[in-house]
Design goal:
The structure holds 2 protein chains of 2 kinds.
Chain A (H helix, E strand, L loop, with lengths): L1 H18 L14 E3 L14 E6 L7 E9 L2 E8 L4 H8 L2 E6 L2 E10 L2 H4 L3 H9 L1 E4 L2 E2 L12 E9 L4
Parallel strand pairs in A: 1-6
Antiparallel strand pairs in A: 2-3, 2-5, 3-4, 4-9, 5-6, 6-9
Chain B lengths: L1 H24 L13 E2 L16 E7 L2 E7 L2 E3 L2 E7 L5 H8 L2 E6 L2 E9 L3 H16 L1 E2 L2 E4 L13 E8 L4
Parallel strand pairs in B: 1-7
Antiparallel strand pairs in B: 2-3, 2-6, 4-5, 5-10, 6-7, 7-10
The chains are: A alpha+beta, B alpha+beta.
Chain lengths: 166, 171
């Protein structure tokens, strides 16, 4: 019985991993599109995008996802917010090799995880304006608080850099 | 061939059970669900500050005659309860409470009959911005205010809708 079911299981796994694009909140398979081979140092053209797609190259199971994005002085930043952490996100934190898709074009990049407040805090005004419709001044990331213990969503920030050797 | 038929049958059964489960037990994560079950709270709630300890609540409206529920955020300020909705214009439950404001919310297993009212004045929404930053994003700011007015051309930006939520008679 196991032998007869195996082909179906393999087909399902192949289709889901290779054939599906990320949809909304749900991660997807490998991203398709025209690969841009020249290194990109200025991502200003992406400022008008509400979101982009990212694929963690070291992830094999549902490696891509829709993510938030922000361009600050030509540098592209990615941002995720969720209560759960998908495999692609864990893979990207371990290994920054990634591809991002903007307007059907693919870029091979490194997505460097940001954890230091000095890197994150300057991004907050732009991010809160774009994704929460808020204007803020002197915003700083503090995490959990006494009034709201543990209600915060998981936020992850990545800075996009050229792929090594790219 | 026999195994193919059984596999298809099993798949259909799993889909039916999954849909039935969702319909009977409310939303699961980002997936909407059916009626909210739980202990019905009949007394009007005067102070909603207990909701500070809960990251997510569920809101039940109706689509046609069918109950429709989602998981979402809540904010309390000076004992009052608010429910924010990012890009509310594109959300089905938001459109529903605009036309039929009577709804039910579930917090920690208890179900409260409530009425939704869209807040339009910036005086009432301004303090809620800082509450939302602290409760959900872990961000503090010296000043925070929701942006109003049309989005500038070429600037993709979310619209934050905020509803005031009040107890109503359990009926």
């Amino acid at each position: 019985m196991r032998g007869k079911l195996l082909p179906y299981a393999l087909c399902l796994a192949t289709l889901t991993t290779l054939g599906c694009e990320p949809r909304g909140f749900f991660p997807g398979g490998r991203l398709s599109g025209a690969l841009v081979t020249e290194p990109v140092s200025d991502f200003s053209f992406a400022s008008s995008e509400y979101g982009v797609q990212v694929e963690a190259l070291s992830s094999t199971f549902f490696p891509s996802a829709n993510v938030r994005c922000l361009v600050v002085e030509g540098t592209l930043y990615l941002f995720t917010e969720s209560l759960s952490e998908f495999e692609w996100l864990r893979a990207l934190k371990r290994d920054p090799r990634a591809r991002i898709r903007i307007r059907e074009e693919l870029y091979e990049v490194r997505a460097v995880a940001l954890t230091h407040p000095a890197d994150i805090d300057p991004l907050l005004p732009g991010l809160l304006r774009k994704y929460f419709g808020m204007s803020v001044s002197r915003a700083r990331y503090v995490g959990s608080s006494t009034r709201f213990p543990g209600t915060q969503i998981g936020m992850n920030f990545f800075r996009i850099e050229p792929a090594k050797g790219g | 061939m026999r195994w193919t038929r059984r596999l298809v049958l099993a798949f259909v059964l799993v889909v039916i059970l999954a849909l039935g489960g969702v319909a009977a037990h409310g939303p699961i994560g980002p997936l909407p669900g059916g009626p909210l079950l739980g202990e019905l709270v009949r007394e009007p709630v005067r102070d909603w500050s207990f909701t500070d300890a809960h990251g997510e609540i569920q809101v039940q409206t109706r689509i046609g005659i069918l109950p429709y529920s989602v998981t979402t955020w809540s904010l309390s300020h000076q004992g009052r309860l608010y429910v924010p909705a990012r890009n509310g214009g594109a959300k089905r439950w938001v459109q529903r409470v605009l036309s039929d404001p009577e709804a039910r919310i579930r917090i920690a297993g208890k179900v409260y009959p409530v009425r939704f009212e869209l807040v339009t004045g910036s005086e009432e929404t301004r303090p809620l911005a800082r509450v939302m930053l602290a409760k959900y994003l872990g961000v503090e700011a010296d000043e925070a205010r929701p942006l109003s007015g049309p989005t500038p051309e070429g600037e993709p930006r979310a619209e934050m809708w905020i509803f005031r939520v009040k107890s109503r008679d359990a009926g």
